Amino acid sequence: MNIKHFVFILNTIDKSNFEKLIKSISKENFKVYFFLSEMDLIFFEEYKTNDKIKALRYNNQSDTSHTLFEQNNISPEEAAFISDDPKNIKYFRKLGVAHCLGIGDNPKDFYHNYADDVLDHISKVKLKDIYNWIENHLEYEKWCLVYKHFDKEEEKLRETLTTVGNGFVGHRNAISFIKADNDTHYPGTYVAGLFNKVPTKIADREIFNNDFVNIPNAFLIEFKFDDDSENWHSKNLKLINCEHRLNMKTGEATRKMTLEHQDGRQVHYTCQQFAGMHNMHILGHNIKIVPLNFEGELKLSSSIDGDIINYGVPRYRKLNGHHFDVKQTLADKNYINLKAETTASNVEINLCVYHNNQLAKHSEPVLADNTAKLLFKKTLEKKQGFELERTIYIETSRNQFHGQKKFVSYDTSLKKSKAAWSKIWNNIDIKISGDRYAQELVRMQLYHLICSASPNNTKIDAGITARGLHGEAYRGHIFWDELFILPFYFKNYPEVAKSIMMYRYRRLDAARRHAKKNNKEGALIPWQIADTGEEETQEIHYNPMSKEWDPDLSRKQRHVSISVAFNIINYYKHTQDDDFLSHEGGEMLLEILRYWASKVRYNQSDNRYHIYRVMGPDEFHEKYPENPVTDGGIDDNAYTNIMVSWLFSKAVQFLPKISTDVKEKINFSSKEDTHNWNDIKNKLFVSIKDNIIEQFDGYFDLKEIDWQLYKEKYDDVGRMDRILKSENDSPDHYKVAKQADTLMLFYLLESEELVSLLNQLGYDVENPEQFLINNFDYYIKRTSHGSTLSYVVHAYLLDEIPNRDDDLCKWFHYALNSDFDDIQGGTTEEGIHCGVMAGNINLIYNCFAGIKMGNTIKLNPNKPKHWKNLSLKIKFQNINYRFEITDNKIKIKADSRHNMKVRYKDKVSDFLDSNQIIFSLVLV
Ligand code: BGC
């Protein structure tokens, strides 16, 4: 995309230099826009006469951007932006402009706000540098997350966002020469599926937590020179400059820094790392140190640090964080090795690091408790570099590395890993032109999903955690978030989706035991699982506002089994994998249905089935206020009831497809087991008043919350539960939801399907669109969005409601930004949110591209106006489709022949005419 517009917002004007610049811009064929204060407008009156130059009144940023981009119909990516106000830089960068240039003498402020470049004076602006950047760097930058200054407050967030991973291992990209501390640095490493459950005495009781193990740190590098008494460390260093970059295309993270010691010695430090996508056991690490203004003997130690505990989440620090014992450390010439074993799950962890061989003559092993360490000594001239390449192997007794461990040069492994990433990007990439920012952030979501579960996962026994392999939040547990996550994999890597569902299958016995313990039949899928498949939801949780440990009743969220069943059915639709449906998938479905058949209670007085004492997705309503905690849950959660009815309705279709072997194995009798299924499906209870579905029985009687009051009192009201509890109140009293609950029904089912399901249940609702609008408008007002999942659901529904496209874009932006900006104030530094990330991608597929795959391909694109071109791939029933959407055209290309039809508005066309596998449609 070429640059066509220059936009200026300047608070101070240096007239002569500015005029020179403007003249040079207007000589070429560009449009120039100024946003100036009223006084300056007079000053620039003369430019108004020039057709190509517009001086506009500057009130505020959103007013400005609206005036500029909407009214002038400009695509942000065709504009470069220049400002002397850092806050404007951030704003315009997020609008998607191609280049942001800051003018000022404090580059940090501008880089903090994501300027691409900073110059100290307007006289230094050279147009050719801007063109050059756009021509030669913009495409590359759209693959990168870049931080050009260090920010103590944001460091942990950036470590998370630049994590390297391959589905098996995730390593937070912390500075290699700094160990974990209380609030700034946290070099955690996690292996998919590796947990350890240990007790802690807290609030007078012994509680067990099954934690995601932070394994020994194989990335520790420490260094000093000559007789330095201590290693160079943030405490004795000043950072002169730095660049922290994640290249998402190649999966490589780099840091470049110039460090200055208290005594003035300067060193240039470079660190590169990646997690092998080609071989999940290999990670590459490369360090280069160059003394800039002195010479001396470098003493650099390369370690695998075994003094590691789980310490990443401040709220959990009172819990036992000791999860492994070091069993053995070795160091020899060019390699170090550390073996450890988890204290309760008894998994052996084996870490080896090989270094470039030619350095062996400079190395000596160091004896250190719990740490495998090699010390390298080398005298360096001024500006002479020392480079240490490290090949790291990570394996466990569950997933061993097969092959010979040896040193492989950093570049050689990186090349292989890059090739594997390139294949992945070829499948998953979503290309957006017209909005550079959305492009970068969309790739960021895709990147982190693949770090969390990749094609490597088909070789291991691991599910997908709610928070990636990026941190310890939620202890690496697996929740219902798969409902949001798996659709991404269905469309790109169905085999990965299957392996994630197989993780559930292998734990079906635990779910059966759980049902039995609760006096129910079939399988009761626990709300949170880790490695064994047992219920791992904590019994008490910490409220940072009240500083109290409160009971946690969230385990009552039985709806998690609906998401497992929904995914199996959805997976089948995408793949027609009969084998999975007739065996593992089918077995899970039957056991889930058996559970629900034993959970529902028939009430003669209303001739309805009811579901008592469960929680819906809205975690604020844990129980009825008058009930003790031992009686958690609420009755007839509409989401649960309606989805259970949906599930029983689907049973007719998939029952015959399930193999008789499976039915025999689990003693499933088509007569006895299913005797009341039809009845349940038609008679589940739902309460609907004035076209609004009641979230649960008694919800309509609760008090309204005074939002204004709380917004004035607290900066962030997302976690109203914590706020109310800290004020000795409870959300149980109010119509206030943490996240979409009733609205989840509209997220999963099309409004027409939902309405006909309700009709089948005997409820008189009509007009699906109005029904959606009424429920949406009712619940959005009563939701605090304390979970990022809530954003994607609301955005998704806005696409279905006429004339709400501006709101749709606004909510999509909240969701897209949520991890990047850590909008929940400190949660992303503890791990990404896979649910919202995948939810964003689904939103692009389903709403912006408007593609719904089924018996026909339904098209209803609704992309943001400034996205000029949107292209993506979808795999459906073994055929790869590429879609390209512009303002007036959709092009679909399939990689093989098929009989698919395409529906756009009311028109259905054959995909294939004669021998074509390309389909083009003009949008009206
Ligand atoms: C949400 C749940 C979600 C969990 C893990 C919670 O904050 O309320 O719906 O499953 O986070 O992402």
Describe the structure.
This protein has 924 residues and is of the alpha+beta class. It has four domains: 5-141, Rossmann fold; 152-425, Distorted Sandwich (Beta-galactosidase, Chain A, domain 5); 507-766, Glycosyltransferase, CATH 1.50.10; 849-924, Maltose phosphorylase, domain 3 (Sandwich). Helices cover 31% and strands 25% of the residues. The protein is built from 27 helices and 39 strands. A nine-stranded antiparallel β-sheet has the order 7-14-15-16-17-24-21-20-19, with helices on one face. A hairpin with a 4-residue loop joins strand 28 (601-603) and strand 29. Helix 14 (560-575) runs antiparallel to helix 16 and helix 17 packs antiparallel against helix 19. It is globular, with a radius of gyration of 29 Å.
Q: What is the architecture of the largest domain at the second tier of CATH? A: Distorted Sandwich
Calculate the terminal CA-CA distance, rounded to whole Å.
25 Å
* Ions and ligands: beta-D-glucopyranose
CATH topology group of the largest domain: Beta-galactosidase, Chain A, domain 5
Shape: globular
Under the CATH scheme, which class of the largest domain? Answer: Mainly Beta
CATH superfamily of the largest domain: Glycoside hydrolase, family 65, N-terminal domain
Number of helices: 27
Fraction in helix: 25-40%
Domain Glycoside hydrolase family 65 N-terminal: 147-398
GO molecular function: carbohydrate binding; glycosyltransferase activity; hydrolase activity, hydrolyzing O-glycosyl compounds
Domain Glycoside hydrolase family 65 central catalytic: 443-841
Keywords: Hydrolase
